[in-house]
Structure prediction request, 537 residues.
Amino acid sequence: MKFDFRHSMSVAALVCAGLATATTADAKTFKWANSGDVSSMDPYARQETFLLTFTANIYEGLVRRDKALKLEPALAVKWGQTDKNTWFFDLRQGVKFTDGTPFTADDVVFSLNRANGPGSNMGSNFASVKEIKKVSDFRVEVTTKYPDPLLADKWAALGMMSKAWAEKNNAVNSADMTKNEENYSTRNAMGTGPFMLKERKAGEKTILVPNPGWWDKPTHNLTEVIFTPVANPATRVAALKAGDIDMMYEVPPADTETLKKEANIKVLEGPETRVVYLGMDQERDELLESNIKGKNPFKDKRVREAFHRSVDVEAIKRTVMRGQSFPTDLMVAPGINGYMKELDKRPALLKPEEAKKLLAAAGYPNGFEVGMDCPNDRYVNDEKICQAVVAMLAKIGVKVNLRAQTRNLYFAKILRKADGKPGETSFYMLGWSPAQTYDVHNVFEALIQTPNAASKKGMFNAGGYSNPALDKLADALEQETDKAKRNEMIKQATKLYVDDYAYIPLHQQAVVWAARKNIELVQPADNTFPLRFVTVK
Prediction:
């Protein structure tokens, strides 16, 4: 379904659009909306917070996060290391998938290999893994190539699938979303979690219902969950005010104060662990989308510095984010293990003439032209931020041709392919939260290390930044258990990418949700949304 928002919509029209499918008399129906749809029902289709948190209501991991984001048992009741290179997971007995088949070690081995296999976007979580094997029906053993003390943390977001269901429905591998592929698991789902998929109409609505055979004791009181993607912010706000939805996952900064004044609405807000940043293609010898031929301007540190020091993050905070951002110069946020406050100091802004001198020294006295990719339904005010960046860079003689599009098209374009080949982008916006481990190593391994399909490292380093010294430090700190030594490695590695102007970090966006006052929910700092904690009064 596509909505036409050129004209304002009445509440009656919203009801017709499906936002109020259930009657308000059914107090246990929970209706919520977001700016964009969940991309797929496959839990390995994309390593993206919204997809992972949505599918986690259906598919469970071996371990999970509690309300305070601490690891706790889920489909594994016990886990640990028998030696420095061997992990074990003892599985919960008596668990069944919603089709009635028992959950066993066969499903775990299948799921983990599938998550690390063709089409999956979760392969970066397996960089250290050598072998996964079944020891018994309820024990799985994992051998690593080198010590990996964070393995259980990395796998908290990996939902377990049914081997039999996937084989029956020709979904043994994930469909590769970077190639816009689909298979049965794209629009269907069957797990062990607290909810089951009842109906899926991509772009229109997705309906979940409780799993009556769930192994855990429900703390929610929901009988039905209706999710609707609504791109237009004004329409989402109007629907919440009218009671057509119970909660909106993303609140536009411009509407936050207005919603706080509503008698029947509460606003939940706090800093998110995600950092939103800009990346540059530093891999190709010639940019795909530029008027400069035969060379790549972003390979020159002076060009990267001119860009970095011409982007006014305080202005973005003030005018675009309405104060709802926390500017940073690092790729990791406060609250994440390995954040270095003393290095989080953004260099002074350059005057346009100063930035132009840097560009001239690099061989671009007249500036240059470059394409920029940006989502318009993924991060808070994402397209508006990119528009602000375009205007800022225009002042230094750089013409940026902005292409803003929905997350499905955007991610398929910019992300690195499974074989390690780069995406089709020259300059882009992305956001990242190390939600698997809450440790800076996740950021190094996924975003900053040199891309390598064989090692699974750098697979979300869309711009192909490469620094061998940083690679060496990141590999070493992954295995280091001495805290003081590890912190020193983190400091050195952080200083390397900061001094290199490898990326242009912008800010932590604020997590801002709004809900009707009869809704009780939990808002974690990683912006996940577990429906098992929701109650309707």
Q: What stands out?
A: Residues 389 and 408 are 22 Å apart (CA to CA).
